[in-house]
């Protein structure tokens, strides 16, 4: 099973990337839980593939955050008199 390509991640929308990040984190948790409780045989490459996918998703998410900085009007401090 080859590692996922980052070009596939770049085609996703921001919402899809956020959903994928949550799904990958949940799947990693489930794998760790199964490994710790020895419920079934876990193949080590599954961790590598999921961690690789998570890194790709987080990288693309951060690239988009840096490319589109938030407007300054949302975080202005208010002074009290």
UniProtKB/TrEMBL annotation:
Keyword check for S-adenosyl-L-methionine: no
Protein name (database record): Large ribosomal subunit protein uL29
Superkingdom field: Bacteria
Gene3D superfamilies for this protein: 1.10.287.310
Coiled-coil annotated residue ranges, if any: none
Record's keyword annotation contains Ribosomal protein: yes
Polar residues biased stretches: 68-81
Family to which the UniProt record says this protein belongs: Belongs to the universal ribosomal protein uL29 family.
Keyword terms, alphabetized: Ribonucleoprotein, Ribosomal protein
Gene Ontology annotations for the cellular component aspect, listed alphabetically: ribosome
Spans annotated as Disordered: 61-81
């Amino acid at each position: 099973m080859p590692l996922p390509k980052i070009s596939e991640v770049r085609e996703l929308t921001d919402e899809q990337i956020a959903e994928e990040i949550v799904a990958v984190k949940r799947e990693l948790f489930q794998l760790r839980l199964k490994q710790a409780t020895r419920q079934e045989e876990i193949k080590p490459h599954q961790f590598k593939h999921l961690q690789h996918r998570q890194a790709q998703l987080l990288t693309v998410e951060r690239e988009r955050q840096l490319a589109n900085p938030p407007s300054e009007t949302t975080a202005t401090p208010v002074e009290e008199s």
